[in-house]
Amino acid sequence: MNQVLIALAGLMGAFGVVLAAAGAHGKPGAGLDSAGYLLLIHAVAIVAVVAAAGLVQRPLATVALAGFVLGAGLFAADVAARAWLGTRLFPMAAPAGGVIMILSWVTLAVAALAAMRA
Predict the structure, then answer these.
(1) Which residues contact 70 (CB under 8 A, 6 or more apart)?
(2) What is the pLDDT of residue 27?
(3) Which of 25, 43, 59, 96 has the largest CB neighbor count within 10 A?
(4) Residue 56 clears pLDDT 80, i.e. is over it
């Protein structure tokens, strides 16, 4: 499972750089740079949590990492769709991705605290 998470983090990092570059050279104010940065930040967070596996309660941490992938991907895909296709991925896709990321960070905090009790 760790290899899959690292592979997803690699893809998120690559797409994050693409979106950040598109934001710098493309449509101003389209939000592509923000979407790229969110992907990059969450890619690094995934690698860090996988590396710190002994410091978090594993099942909860896996849920948090899956949320990072889903939430950041959903947010970035919606922003990119609006910028490049002129339409949303689906209604409320970006806000849903944001809520998933927030809940995933809270889940990661709970996973760390739960590991302290074990």
Answers:
(1) 97, 100
(2) 75
(3) 43
(4) yes
Cβ atoms < 10 Å from Cβ of 7: 10
Per the prediction, the chain carries an average pLDDT of: 93
- Buried/exposed 72-106: b ≥16 CB within 10 Å, e otherwise: bbbbbbbbbbbbeeeeebeeebbebbbebbeebbe
- pTM of the shown model: 0.90
Q: How far apart are CA 93 and CA 76, in angstroms?
A: 9
What the block records as the tokens of 29 is 């104010």
**Could you tell me how far CA 47 lies from the centroid of its own chain?**
12
Residue 29 has what pLDDT?
81
SS3 content of the chain, % helix, strand, coil (to 5): 85, 0, 15
pLDDT band at residue 118 under the 50/70/90 scheme: low
Q: How many CB atoms lie within 10 A of CB 35?
A: 28
Dihedral sign of CA atoms 110, 36, 11, 79 in order: positive
